[in-house]
TrEMBL record:
Its membrane topology: Multi-pass membrane protein
The protein's name: intramembrane prenyl-peptidase Rce1
UniProt-listed GO biological process terms: CAAX-box protein processing
E.C. number(s) listed in UniProt: 3.4.26.1
Bilayer-spanning residue ranges: 20-39, 70-88, 140-160, 208-228, 248-269, 306-325
Pfam families found in the cross-reference section: Rce1-like (PF02517)
Keywords, ordered alphabetically: Endoplasmic reticulum, Hydrolase, Membrane, Protease, Transmembrane, Transmembrane helix
Catalytic reactions on record: Hydrolyzes the peptide bond -P2-(S-farnesyl or geranylgeranyl)C-P1'-P2'-P3'-COOH where P1' and P2' are amino acids with aliphatic sidechains and P3' is any C-terminal residue
Length: 338
């Protein structure tokens, strides 16, 4: 497991769960998360205006608030169900409720500093809080740097557009405060990444790992569940007035993008044993959006070649830095990486 904290009685090695149980649980968690978005009547879309004449789509404040509440509830339920399932199935050896809870948290990628009543350290926590903060910092800044390297091309385009911090078209109030504190910002950059990573990484990868599912399958196949969980956007687009063909096209593109991101997020979770790197990468990807080198080249015709070159360099830099920035020296090792 991640070396953020060292607990006695570490979790046993797989296989401890049957593949059928793990796959069934993963499917149930996926269905529960998607269904939660429509659980509340307020979260369901309607192709009609509200009292103020605004169409009730996925960006309507009423819909966003309702879905934030139900998605948060579904995530809490999923984490609790996963933890209880791991405990009941004996993945976590019985050592008392506090130690069991901390061990379950570790398995779900939520390593916490350990009170010294559970260790021989003379300090209040093991590891000491400064050391703990340093390790957590690596779990944040390493994936931040790695993910930003992939977006070198879009960052160069932002430089050409003069929208980077301290450039003429950048506004801290508009581009930071309003963007991240608005309802859509809270959904896209806080609640969405947090809940999706806790469900599709912590709660799905953990049972599958202890069912001895191969690492390659954990990385490349489980994003199908993550992608499927986004297919309901086709229905949302259709209700919002898109044609059926366009709705299916948008859903296909989104399924492909979420699948590729799922590979990356799964890799980060397995390499680190922590959900933090995936959350960081998720937020960065949501902020940056899909790269658009063609449209950028049309805006900056004299820089078209450099734009494509920057995108290519970003991909190469990402590939070169992927293993070093997720190594044991950076992340502290992981039970999940075999």
């Amino acid at each position: 497991m991640s070396l953020i904290c060292n607990l006695p009685n570490p979790p046993l090695h797989p296989p401890l769960l049957s593949p059928g149980f793990a796959i069934g649980a993963s499917t149930l968690f996926t269905f529960t998360y998607v269904a939660s978005l429509y659980l509340s009547p307020a979260g369901r879309l309607a192709n009609k205006p509200d009292l103020d004449g605004r169409i009730i789509d996925r960006d309507h404040p009423i819909v966003i608030r309702a879905r934030i509440k139900t998605a948060s509830f579904a995530t809490a339920f999923t984490l609790l169900a996963t933890g209880i399932g791991l405990w009941v199935k004996g993945v976590v050896p019985r050592s008392g409720w506090l130690l069991d809870t901390l061990n379950v948290a570790r398995l779900l990628g939520l390593p916490l500093p350990v009170p010294t009543v559970l260790s021989s350290s003379t300090l209040p926590f093991d590891p000491p809080l400064l050391q703990y903060g340093s390790i957590v910092g690596k779990h944040i800044f390493a994936p931040l740097l790695l993910t930003l390297s992939l977006f070198l091309g879009p960052l160069y385009v932002s430089y050409l557009d003069r929208t980077l911090p301290f450039q003429s078209r950048f506004s801290f109030q508009h581009d930071v405060v309003s963007k991240f504190t608005s309802l859509t910002g809270v959904r896209n950059y806080t609640v969405g990444p947090l809940t999706e990573e806790l469900v599709f990484r912590s709660s799905i990868l953990t049972p599958l790992f202890f069912a001895s599912i191969p690492t390659s399958s954990l990385i490349f196949l489980t994003p199908l569940l993550f992608g499927i969980a986004h297919l309901h956007h086709a229905y949302n687009n259709y209700l919002s007035g898109y044609s059926l063909s366009r709705s299916l096209l948008v859903a296909t593109l989104q399924f492909s993008y979420t699948g590729v991101f799922g590979w990356y997020a799964n890799f980060l979770f397995l390499r680190s044993g922590s959900v933090l790197p995936g959350i960081v990468a998720h937020v960065v990807c949501n902020v940056m959006g899909l790269p658009e080198p063609v449209a950028a080249g049309e805006r900056h015709t004299k820089k078209r070649g450099w734009i494509w070159f920057a995108h290519a360099v970003g991909v190469v830099a990402f590939a070169k830095a992927l293993m070093p920035l997720t190594s044991e020296r950076v992340f502290g090792g992981s039970l999940y990486w075999r």
